[in-house]
Amino acid sequence: MTPPPAALEISGLSAGYNGVPAVRDLSISVAQGEVLALLGPNGAGKTTTLLAAVGLLPALRGSVVALGTPLRGRRVERTARAGVSLVPAGRGVFHQLTVAENLRLARRRGGADLDETLGHFPPLRPLLGRRCGLLSGGEQQMLALAKALLAGPRVLLVDELSLGLAPLAVRGLLPTIRALADERRMAVVLVEQHLDLALSVADRAVVLHHGRVALAGRAAELRERRDLVEAAYFGHTDPASPFEPSGSAP
Ligand SMILES: Nc1ncnc2c1ncn2[C@@H]1O[C@H](COP(=O)(O)OP(=O)(O)OP(=O)(O)O)[C@@H](O)[C@H]1O
């Protein structure tokens, strides 16, 4: 049987700043319903990858295809229309607006049901009338995620949802993303610094180092081989490693 087409296919991507690549020749493929953890030390190129994938940063080389639609060179609004949503690092919410107003704005652009989406984030319900600037960090992250989900994405890119959050809050949010990936057959790329948690909700993981894939493999296997993951963080890859540093194999 032929495998289902990838929801997101990044091939030979190079992207960076002022013509200098921060990510080089990166190839990643994510299937529908699959969660891929994109890991690596500070400055490895994780955010650059996500920004280039959605068109917020022009790619220098390579292609990005989502659900059969080539995205490279497209403006970010067209990327969203192709079914790709980004939850940016640092809480993409409007602080002066209430929770309900933030959701309404996101809903205008989107396809998913508000009530159904809110069902995944019960703590937001009693806060609908509160200004976002008065929410806790975890509540703001929940709202940022809910806003992205209201667009009804088929591909969700999440950049460090856990930034500045208590471990307990992170432990609540990441399993929600896993559940949504399963329920909506949504492909997810999860940039995350909480290694164990990321590997516990992901199907596969890719570790970047200096803009290149240092290690890739099945998340369950990598959880058992923390030595390899940690070595990849420092740019050491083991030639005898059972995991192929290709990043593209599902
Ligand atoms: N606006 C920018 N202008 C110039 N260089 C940048 C810019 N943003 C990021 N970089 C550089 O590009 C490289 C990759 O950065 P990127 O933000 O993608 O890393 P990251 O893996 O997401 O890191 P972190 O975990 O710290 O968020 C780094 O060397 C960084 O200094």
Strand order of the largest sheet: 6-7-8-3-9-10
What is the CA-atom radius of gyration, in angstroms?
Answer: 17 Å
The amount of beta strand, in percent, is 25-35%
- The name of the CATH architecture of the domain at 8-88 and 153-233 is 3-Layer(aba) Sandwich
Count of β-strands: 10
Series of secondary-structure elements, N-terminal to C-terminal: EEEHEEHEHHHEHEHEEHH
| Name of the CATH superfamily of the domain at 8-88 and 153-233 | P-loop containing nucleotide triphosphate hydrolases
Q: Treating each run of at least 4 consecutive H or I residues as one helix, how many helices? A: 9
Query: CATH first level of the domain at 8-88 and 153-233: which class?
Result: Alpha Beta
Based on Cα principal axes, name the global outline.
globular
Helicity range: 25-40%
Low-pLDDT residue intervals, each spanning 5 or more residues: 245-250
The overall pLDDT, averaged over residues, is 86
Bound heterogens, unique: adenosine-5'-triphosphate
CATH topology of the domain at 8-88 and 153-233: Rossmann fold
Structure class: alpha/beta
Q: Tell me about the biggest sheet?
A: 6 strands, mixed
